[in-house]
């Protein structure tokens, strides 16, 4: 489920593969699902004995819980949301949330001493906030002679960049697969994000309280999933055992993210 997130991923009919492939894709959120599909075949036969998993019993139960939330709650709500709101509007919401979370990317690129990436992020934020109407559009990527691409770094990647191990695997409720390092990363990034209310930092945050933060995160999950309906099922269909399948894909993806 943003580590989501899977960083999220029906009682309704699952879309056919052709309908999935013909749907226009969002600018930023699609990267997560594409990366999972890319790693699905590459690491299917990899040895995973090096993944520490002392919470396997809990993780299996939580994976089953998250799967039911996606199938019986998130997907139906996302379908209704997509029916009511046209795709351009939902793409705008996705772009806006990505743009306003610019501080997370900037701070983590700076912490990793990736100064060109940091400069790109600043330039992207200025262009998209002004020309892109507050970040609803992404002209920095789509309308520049030389596109300025985002550099998605989080604090979990920053810790990994400096050699901090992942620790044991843990599945978070609603957010999906994670590990000790990335769970710490999610917490730290929450302090940096303008969209997460933190006591003592209210003046620097958009939501005024925890309830508003939960509402914003919920909207993000629904909006993101509405742009990728059917893709979770596409990933899931080849899994003989869902929990280790998602665990191994997640851990290998994070290794790749840190290596970039």
In short:
The protein is mainly α.
Structure notes:
The chain is 59% helix and 3% strand. Strand 1 (169-172) and strand 2 form a beta hairpin. The chain has helices spanning 17-22, 30-42, 56-84, 87-100, 102-111, 115-130, 139-142, 155-161, 180-192, 210-226, 231-236, 242-259, and strands spanning 169-172, 176-179. The model is unreliable at 1-24 and 43-49 (pLDDT under 50). It has twelve helices and two strands, in the order H-H-H-H-H-H-H-H-E-E-H-H-H-H. The protein starts with 16 loop residues before the first helix and ends with a helix. It is mainly alpha-helical and 260 residues long. The chain has a two-stranded antiparallel sheet with strand order 1-2.
Please render the helix and strand layout as text.
Layout: H1 17-22, H2 30-42, H3 56-84, H4 87-100, H5 102-111, H6 115-130, H7 139-142, H8 155-161, E1 169-172, E2 176-179, H9 180-192, H10 210-226, H11 231-236, H12 242-259
Antiparallel strand pairs: 1-2
Helix pairs in contact: 2-12, 3-10, 4-10, 5-6, 8-9, 8-12
What labels describe this entry?
single chain; 260 residues; mainly alpha; two-stranded antiparallel sheet; 12 helices; globular; disordered N terminus
- What's the shape? globular
- Overall helicity: 55-70%
What is the end-to-end distance?
23 Å
Portion in beta strands? under 5%
Taken in chain order, the helices and strands follow as HHHHHHHHEEHHHH
User: In terms of structural class, how would the helical and strand content be classed?
Assistant: mainly alpha
Q: For the largest beta sheet, what order do the strands appear in spatially?
A: 1-2
Strand segment count: 2
| Overall pLDDT confidence | 86
Radius of gyration: 18 Å
Sheet with the most strands, sense and barrel status: 2 strands, antiparallel
Which ranges are low-confidence, i.e. pLDDT below 50, for 5 or more consecutive residues? 1-24, 43-49
Assembly status? single chain
**Counting H and I runs of at least 4 residues, what is the number of helices?**
12
């Amino acid at each position: 489920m943003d580590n989501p997130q899977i960083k999220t991923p029906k009682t309704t009919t699952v879309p056919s593969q052709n309908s999935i492939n013909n749907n226009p894709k969002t600018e930023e959120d699609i990267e997560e699902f594409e990366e999972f599909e890319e790693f699905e075949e590459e690491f299917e036969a990899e040895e995973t004995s090096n993944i520490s998993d002392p919470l396997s019993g809990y993780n299996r139960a939580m994976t089953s819980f998250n799967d039911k939330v996606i199938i019986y709650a998130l997907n139906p709500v996302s379908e209704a949301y997509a029916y009511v709101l046209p795709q351009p509007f939902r793409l705008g919401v996705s772009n806006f949330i990505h743009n306003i979370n610019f501080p997370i990317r900037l701070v983590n690129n700076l912490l990793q001493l990736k100064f060109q990436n940091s400069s790109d992020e600043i330039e992207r934020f200025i262009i998209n906030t002004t020309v892109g109407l507050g970040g609803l559009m992404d002209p920095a990527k789509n309308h520049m002679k030389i596109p300025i691409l985002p550099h998605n770094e989080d604090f979990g990647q920053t810790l990994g960049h400096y050699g901090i191990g992942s620790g044991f695997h843990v599945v978070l409720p609603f957010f999906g697969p994670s590990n000790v390092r990335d769970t710490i990363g999610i917490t730290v990034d929450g302090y940096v994000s303008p969209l997460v209310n933190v006591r003592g930092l209210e003046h620097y945050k958009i939501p005024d309280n925890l309830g508003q933060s939960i509402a914003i995160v919920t909207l993000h999950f629904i909006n993101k999933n509405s742009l990728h309906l059917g893709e979770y099922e596409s990933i899931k269909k080849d899994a003989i055992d869902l929990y280790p399948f998602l665990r191994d894909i997640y851990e290998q993806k994070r290794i790749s993210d840190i290596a970039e």
